[in-house]
Amino acid sequence: MSKKLALLSLSLILAISMVLLLITRVNVLAQEGSFGKQTYGEEDIGPEMGESSMFVDKESMQIMKYLKPTIKQRQKLHKINMDFLKDTIDLNNEEGQKLLKRHELMEEDTIDLKKVDKLTDEISVIRAELHKKRIRKRLAIRKILTSEQKEKYDELRGYRGTARPGFLGRGFGPGRGQGRFRGM
Length: 184
Prior knowledge:
By secondary structure, the chain is an all-alpha fold. The protein has helices at 2-33, 58-67, 71-107, 113-143, 147-157. It contains five helices and no strands. The chain is flat and about 75 Å long.
């Protein structure tokens, strides 16, 4: 009889634990914003635009939060972001391949410095091209903003005045840092 009672108690505890786990998961998903639908503060982009968190960068999130663009501006911003992703996907892939190849070369017993230098130069060219494309993207974003939004965008980006600490991950406090204190 005591074995049956112990087994029944164990089954009841397991069932209650599963229910609590399910409730916790649903609550977490609800807090993330409509079960995975990407949200931006007061309003969201909405499924009609096909927005996915996979295609939203940190800068876009900040724009949505601080500049509160209109629906038309959001649609244009989405197009700018998607065009940028389409335009840079091959470059990002090529950069990753070259970084991996350079890493492999650096792990060899005898390092061929000429090959490492050549790959480093190629990576630098790719990064320069990516940087140019990011600049063009930011200029395209500025074109769709009102003058007040441009002012705020420039302030947030650090172009004029002082940048707000923490915008786009910049600012003081713990983080990656630079040099030997990196990661502290």
